[in-house]
Amino acid sequence: xxxxxRRSSRPPGRPHQSRLSSGxxxxxxxxxxxxxxxxxxxxxxxxxxxxxxxxLHRAALDELGARDEADWTWAIVDVASVxxxxxxx
Length: 89
Prior knowledge:
By secondary structure, this protein is mainly alpha-helical. The protein has two helices and no strands.
């Protein structure tokens, strides 16, 4: 008896988006970063906890908006922030 193929819940023809962007593996940082993966991770954590990324994002949006170069027709959803529902649960 051969195993049956498991069917995907994605509609046909739709790519699996999480494969396009899946975060950072610290051990794969290039040597050009000039620091160890442990140091890079520690700095990233501190910068995240102090709100640096939110402030940089806001500054970039403000700058693009001031130059009328912000394109509000695109968006990215961070799946880490969106609850994934499982069937009827």
